[in-house]
Every structure is written in structure tokens, then in C-alpha cells.
């Protein structure tokens, strides 16, 4: 590889600096002759760089996939996209390795009974068997006896097809997706308050704020590249407030870290609002012009003085006052939150309480002032917009609205009577499988055996099905329990769009052809639909053709994609919806005119009443178990637990406990809940509340955090209460072993990635505090 400078005349072409945003010293560096990195270029014979985006979290960092002369992906380079500015996290750097991984599924797997071993079969045999089972079950028990579960890591084109396939080909009401485990509490709150389900501000607005509040989000590990925006705001002097039971890496740098007790978020934020009101820090003009329900919310806030909330939340009353003053007095303030306040039986209320705080202080709809949610999956935002959610149709339409139903039936070419009613949520579908109300299931891009709570119930539900098929490119724990497994493409072997956490639609490009024997999810759904008699409604040769129908289906809705085209996305690097026409620039910031998407244009504030978590504390279970992610792994770990550097960095889960419990680092600690018990190595650190235990959830049984969590749901969003359940901890003799990921018949777990699983110690604490150093 050679590197040569461009012409001297080009070298001195400076990119103009905005002095309000430029870090200190940047202009001096430029004036001294510093050369921007992009003034140099490198060439390698035979290599192609394909611009695309990361497959993992909702930040959607831009990257180049490196493709060799043979058309195979062999590496990655960061891309100077304005989302990530050349930065990638450990997952992004290693993501390319899954494309040509030896664990890839390259032929359909099939068995007629779970008592049999899988065997590789032809596509014809796998498709025929699947269609025969669908018909048998539906003819015997009715159309709704068969269900479909999709995923929020799929391209939006595929999520659109999931919803259409369930309702038009399967003719079943039972369709939902694993985004139900992600940010549906925020979605429910956003719809209630604003009439629209998306973040109100782009990431870049963080750089303009004077106070940034982050609630329930371990940004440094779950969204590492997003920390650039946090540091940019801090460089300008912005205050940082972090609400989290753990002193995460981002919390350790905060001006105020509120280590509240899990499950008490709405009590805390309502009390913060109490102080804002009592000290005359509300923006009464903004509320009078732009909000309804304020008097009712104000009356409820009066019931939560800091003295009461301090007892509920386990934090000093003075800290509640400090947060209120810091946030309300800031000229511009922003609040962002994630699963930490959403994974609760009161998740919607938690989010509504944050919205009330932002509205009461007038921090809505301005550069540097607003409210947003950080999505966990790559298409966590886009994955719920176009129909795979049980109660929604494309464009965010309600499936219970007669006019919305009529519009979609006209586009799909079916009678309104043929469109099923709303279905149930993902966890509720598992309960229905347990009761044998749902007897057949197709799963696409999900792994409930690791990601759903209360594993015993999940296993019983799936075992009760008479037929189960799964789409995946690796054999997940859930797929290993199926009757048929369809081998499908990775993100690098197809093209399509995703919408990131700021609702910016970005385009992923195909970098290589799939291995022989592998098909796209689109092809499989369309082929199944053809064999089920609905082929005329699924004549889609590629993603582009699906996207054109999606654009039409979204036109005129709140989630309007009509003005977004593949060509515009390539040209611009991304467009925020709504975008109603091809000459519309998109809408990166909502509510700038002071209007929401409710018919009256107002923010509809909602009264919130705190209630305790669903799993009660007692003498046997006096502590709180909470769960979350770690920087090296992603969700159920089906991808990252196969990538050597990530497994080596974090080979196993651990139980994070406070030193006051008397454990030494690495000692076996048994965590016991009402669902069961498991033994983990202790990670002893002062960076967690003494009454709380933390376990990362990326691993399967017998080291699965979600074998211990409770399957209680928020009554409105139906999200599980992952972030708090009652537990106790005990000394144990032996740490439970981490199993290797499942592989296809005739394969063994890729040994280079598995050797470190036997390490009995937890990783070094990412917080860098306490007694967690390896000895």
C-alpha cells in the first residue's frame, strides 16, 4: 500500500470552522499548517471499498467494507460520515468478520420432530415442508394459530414485508417483533405526548446544549461512538447529569450522577418537576401556548416533594433539588434516555415523566433543547414504523383505525374484511404458545431463548409449538430448537435502509454476493407467499422494489418516507423523516414551530403515578437485579459471541456486586430470583448500589441473565420489566460454565473464538473503580 500527498494547492484548502463548535486549539493547529487527514489517500490494487453502515446499534456509524478481487469482504475502514466522523466501536470494527465466518449456515436445516437431529436439505424440501405445516395448522385450528415474529435489525424493506406477509400470506393477526423488547415504552409515551414516535432532535443538537441529561443509558458501552457528542457538549461547557443505579463510564464523568434505586425513575422525575414548580423555574408562556394537561400534572407533582422521593429512590433529597436547578436554569437543555428507564412495568410512565420535565421548562423543539430516545438495535426506529408491530400498519398507521385500514388494503389489493385485527405482543405470543393457542411460528432475525425474560416459560412455549421455522445466518439458540432453519444473508450481502436513533434514514449497500445456498429474507418470504397462494402480492425481485411500495404506503402519514429515494440517500448520507416529497430536505428537528402531530398541535402532558416494581421485595429476595449490555457484545450475542476479539475481550457474564457483601473478585456468587438461580464470577466494585446486582444478558442458559428476570409487562407498551426484579446473592462453590454457540451439523464451534470462555474471572471493570482489578 502506498500513500502520497495530493497536490500542494489542495493541501492548504481548509474546511471552514464554526468557532462556536470547534474544540479549543483547532484553529491554531490549522493556522500552524496542520493538514486534514482526508488530504491524503491510499491505493491498494484490486481492493474495493463499499460505503455502508454498521449492522449493530441505533447510532448507525458509517463504514467502508473492504472487498478483495474475489468479491469477498475481508476488512473494514471507518468512514467520515457525519454520524460517526471516522469512529467505530469494538463491535463495528469486528462486524465484517461475521460475513465469511465458518459458522455461517449455507443450506436449509430440517427435522420433522425435535427428537431428531437436523439434516441439511434442499430449499425445495424445506419450503414444501414449511408450507405444508402452515396449511395443516391453519386448516385445523384457524389462521390465528400460526404466528410470525420479526426483528428490528432487519432492513426496513424486510420489516415491511414481515407485516405484509403475516397479514396477507398467512392471514394471521399474530405478528410482532423483537423491538417490543427495545424502545416501545418510549414509542408509547411519544405518541401520547406528541402524536409522533421518534426523537425530537438530531444528535448534532447535543453539541449546542448547555445541559445534557442522560437517563438509563450506558452510553460509553452501548453507544460508544455517541460519546463524541457528549464530549463535544462538555468542551463547550455543558453540564452533564446521569441517572443510573451504576456508576458507568459516562456517569463517572458527570457533574451529577444520581444512583437511584432500580424501578423508581418516575418518582424521581416527578419530584424534580416538583422542585422546578416550587422554585418558579417553569416556562409558563411555553406551557400556555403549547401544552394541555399541565394543571393535572402540576397537581400530581405536588405529591412528590424531594423528601418523599428521596425515600422511594434511595438518593439524597438535595440531589433532586440540584438536578432540578441545573436542568431548568440552563438556557438550552436536552434529555436522552434508553432501556434503563424503559424496561419497566411502568416504562411508559417513566418516559412521560421526562417529557413533562422538558415541556415544563420549555426545552422542546429548539437547537440544543429537546428530548430523544437512544435505540438499541440498528433499525430500532425504522423497524417499528412499517407494519411488523402487532398494532401498526405501514406508515405508523393504526390497525384499529378504519380509514387507515382502508388505505393499506387499497395499496395491498385486498378487501378490508381480509385484513386481520390487531395481534398481541411478543411475550404474550409466547404465553399463547404455552396455552397452545398459537401452534406454529416463523421467526426472523430474533433469538428469544436469550433475549426474552423468564427462560423457562419461553422454552415451554416454543416446545409446545407443533411447527417452528427460523430465518438466520448463524444457528442461534432459538433456531437450534426449530424444525426448519432457513440460511439467509447478512447485512453485507443485500441492500436496504435503516432509520437510526435520530430518525435519519440511511442506506446499506451490498458488498458481496451471499455464499452458495444462501437466500435473502425477501426471497424466502416471497417464495413462501407464492406457495401459500399470495404470490401476486409479493412480486418483489429485490429490496429496491419493496422500498418503492413502502414509499407509496407511507405517503401522507406521520412516518412519511415518500420523498426518500435510494439515490437521495446515496447523495446526502441520510434523510430524517417525515419527508413528503423528493424536493423536501427531511425533518431532522421536530416541533420547531411549536406544534406537535396531535390535531390541536399541542403537547398532551400525562399524569404519572409511581408504583413499585412487579416483583416484590421480601426477606428472601431483598435486593434488585438489573441487566444490561457490555461494550463487546450485542443483544442475544448470536453474532458477537462468535467473533474472536470480542469473545476474548468479554468471554462470559459476571455478577457486579458492592464490596459490602464480602465477596472477592472472581469468587462464585449465586444470584437467586423467584425464577431460579445461576452462579457467576463476582465483579466487586464500588460503582454499584449496595442493594443492586448487575448481570449482562448476552449469554444463554446456564449463564443467562434472562433465566432470572420476570416476564411482567408494562400494561400499555407490553415491554418486559428487565431492569428490576427481586433477588438475593449467596456464596457458591462453582461458577456455571458458558456454553459454546450452536453450530450446524458436522461443524464444531470455531475454536479460535471459544478458548477464552473457560476464563473463570470477570472482565476488568469498565468503570475502573473498586476492587475489580485482576490479580
TrEMBL record:
Keywords: 4Fe-4S, Iron, Iron-sulfur, Metal-binding
GO terms of biological process kind: respiratory electron transport chain
GO cellular component: membrane
Pfam families per the UniProt record, alphabetical: Molybdop_Fe4S4 (PF04879), Molybdopterin (PF00384), Molydop_binding (PF01568)
PROSITE patterns the UniProt entry points to: 4FE4S_MOW_BIS_MGD
Sequence segments annotated as region (Disordered): 1-33, 372-399, 738-775
Annotated 4Fe-4S Mo/W bis-MGD-type domain residues: 47-103
Gly residues composition bias: residue spans: 372-382
InterPro entries named in the record: Asp_de-COase-like_dom_sf, MoPterin_dinucl-bd_dom, Mopterin_OxRdtase, Mopterin_OxRdtase_4Fe-4S_dom, Prok_molybdopt-oxidoreductase
UniProt GO MF annotations: 4 iron, 4 sulfur cluster binding; metal ion binding; molybdopterin cofactor binding; NADH dehydrogenase activity
Protein name: Molybdopterin oxidoreductase family protein
Amino acid at each position: 500500500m502506498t500513500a502520497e500527498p495530493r497536490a500542494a494547492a489542495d493541501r492548504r484548502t481548509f474546511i471552514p470552522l464554526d468557532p462556536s463548535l470547534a474544540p479549543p486549539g483547532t484553529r491554531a493547529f490549522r493556522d500552524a499548517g496542520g493538514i486534514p487527514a482526508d488530504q491524503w489517500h491510499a491505493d491498494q490494487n484490486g481492493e474495493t471499498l463499499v460505503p455502508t453502515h454498521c449492522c449493530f446499534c441505533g447510532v448507525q456509524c458509517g463504514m467502508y467494507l473492504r472487498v478483495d478481487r474475489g468479491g469477498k469482504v475481508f476488512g473494514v475502514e471507518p468512514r467520515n460520515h457525519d454520524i460517526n466522523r471516522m469512529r467505530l466501536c469494538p463491535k463495528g470494527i469486528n462486524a465484517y468478520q461475521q460475513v465469511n465466518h465458518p459458522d455461517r449456515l449455507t443450506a436449509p436445516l430440517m427435522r420433522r420432530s425435535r427428537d431428531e437431529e437436523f439434516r441439511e436439505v434442499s430449499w425445495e424440501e424445506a419450503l414444501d415442508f414449511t408450507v405444508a405445516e402452515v396449511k395443516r395448522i391453519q386448516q385445523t385450528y384457524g389462521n390465528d394459530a400460526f404466528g410470525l415474529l420479526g426483528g428490528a435489525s432487519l432492513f426496513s424493506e424486510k420489516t415491511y414485508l414481515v407485516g405484509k406477509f403475516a397479514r396477507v400470506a398467512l392471514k394471521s393477526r399474530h405478528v410482532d417483533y423483537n423491538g417490543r423488547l427495545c424502545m416501545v415504552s418510549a414509542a408509547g409515551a411519544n405518541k401520547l405526548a406528541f402524536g409522533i414516535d421518534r426523537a425530537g432532535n438530531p444528535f448534532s443538537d447535543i453539541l449546542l446544549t448547555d445541559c445534557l441529561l442522560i437517563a438509563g443509558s450506558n452510553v460509553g458501552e452501548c453507544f460508544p461512538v455517541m460519546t463524541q457528542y457528549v464530549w463535544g457538549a462538555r468542551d463547550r461547557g455543558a453540564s452533564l447529569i446521569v441517572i443510573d443505579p451504576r456508576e458507568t463510564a459516562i456517569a463517572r464523568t458527570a457533574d451529577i450522577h444520581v444512583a437511584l434505586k432500580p424501578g423508581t425513575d418516575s418518582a424521581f422525575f416527578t419530584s424534580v418537576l416538583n422542585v422546578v414548580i416550587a422554585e418558579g423555574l417553569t416556562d409558563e408562556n411555553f406551557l400556555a401556548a403549547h401544552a394541555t394537561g399541565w394543571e393535572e400534572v402540576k397537581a400530581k407533582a405536588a405529591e412528590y416533594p424531594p423528601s418523599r422521593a428521596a425515600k422511594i429512590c434511595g438518593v439524597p433529597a438535595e440531589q433532586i433539588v440540584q438536578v432540578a436547578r441545573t436542568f431548568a436554569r440552563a438556557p438550552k437543555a436536552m434529555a436522552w434516555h434508553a432501556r434503563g428507564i424503559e424496561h419497566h412495568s411502568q416504562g411508559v410512565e417513566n418516559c412521560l415523566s421526562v417529557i413533562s420535565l422538558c415541556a415544563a421548562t420549555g426545552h422542546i423543539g429548539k437547537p440544543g433543547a429537546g428530548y430523544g430516545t437512544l435505540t438499541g438495535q440498528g433499525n430500532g426506529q425504522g423497524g417499528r414504523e412499517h407494519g411488523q408491530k402487532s398494532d401498526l400498519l405501514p406508515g405508523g398507521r393504526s390497525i384499529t383505525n378504519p380509514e387507515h385500514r382502508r388505505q393499506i388494503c387499497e395499496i395491498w389489493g385486498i378487501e378490508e374484511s381480509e385484513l386481520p385485527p390487531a395481534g398481541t405482543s411478543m411475550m404474550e405470543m409466547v404465553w399463547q404458545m404455552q396455552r397452545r393457542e398459537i401452534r406454529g411460528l416463523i421467526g426472523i432475525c430474533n433469538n428469544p431463548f436469550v433475549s426474552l425474560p423468564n427462560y423457562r416459560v419461553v422454552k415451554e412455549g416454543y416446545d409446545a409449538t407443533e411447527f417452528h421455522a427460523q430465518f438466520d445466518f448463524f444457528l442461534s439458540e432459538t433456531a437450534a430448537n426449530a424444525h426448519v432453519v432457513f440460511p439467509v444473508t447478512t447485512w453485507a450481502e443485500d441492500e436496504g435502509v435503516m432509520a437510526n436513533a435520530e430518525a435519519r434514514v440511511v442506506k446499506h449497500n451490498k458488498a458481496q454476493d451471499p455464499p452458495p445456498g444462501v437466500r435473502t429474507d425477501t426471497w424466502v418470504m416471497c417464495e413462501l407467499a407464492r406457495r401459500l397462494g399470495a404470490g401476486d402480492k409479493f412480486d418483489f425481485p429485490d429490496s429496491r422494489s419493496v422500498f418503492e411500495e413502502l414509499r407509496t404506503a407511507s405517503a401522507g402519514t406521520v412516518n412519511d418516507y415518500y420523498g426518500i429515494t435510494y439515490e437521495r440517500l446515496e447523495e446526502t448520507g441520510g434523510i430524517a423523516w417525515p419527508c413528503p416529497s423528493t424536493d423536501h430536505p427531511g425533518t431532522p428537528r421536530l416541533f420547531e414551530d411549536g406544534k406537535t402531530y396531535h390535531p390541536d398541535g399541542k403537547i398532551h402532558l400525562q399524569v404519572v403515578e409511581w408504583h413499585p416494581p412487579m416483583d416484590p421485595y421480601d426477606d428472601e429476595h431483598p435486593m434488585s437485579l438489573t441487566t444490561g449490555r457490555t461494550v463487546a457484545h450485542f443483544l442475544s450475542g448470536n453474532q458477537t459471541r462468535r467473533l474472536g476479539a470480542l469473545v476474548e475481550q468479554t468471554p462470559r457474564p459476571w455478577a457486579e456486586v458492592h464490596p459490602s457483601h464480602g465477596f472477592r473478585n472472581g469468587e462464585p456468587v449465586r444470584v437467586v430470583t423467584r425464577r431460579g438461580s445461576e452462579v457467576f464470577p463476582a465483579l466487586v466494585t464500588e460503582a454499584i448500589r449496595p442493594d443492586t446486582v448487575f448481570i449482562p444478558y448476552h449469554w444463554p442458559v446456564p449463564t443467562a441473565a434472562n433465566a432470572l428476570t420476570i416476564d411482567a409487562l408494562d400494561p400499555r407498551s407490553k415491554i418486559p420489566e428487565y431492569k428490576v426484579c427481586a433477588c438475593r446473592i449467596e456464596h457458591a462453590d462453582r461458577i456455571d460454565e458458558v456454553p459454546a454457540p450452536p453450530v450446524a451439523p458436522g461443524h464444531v464451534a470455531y475454536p479460535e473464538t471459544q478458548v477464552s470462555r473457560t476464563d473463570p474471572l470477570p472482565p476488568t471493570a469498565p468503570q475502573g473503580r473498586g476492587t475489580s482489578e485482576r490479580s
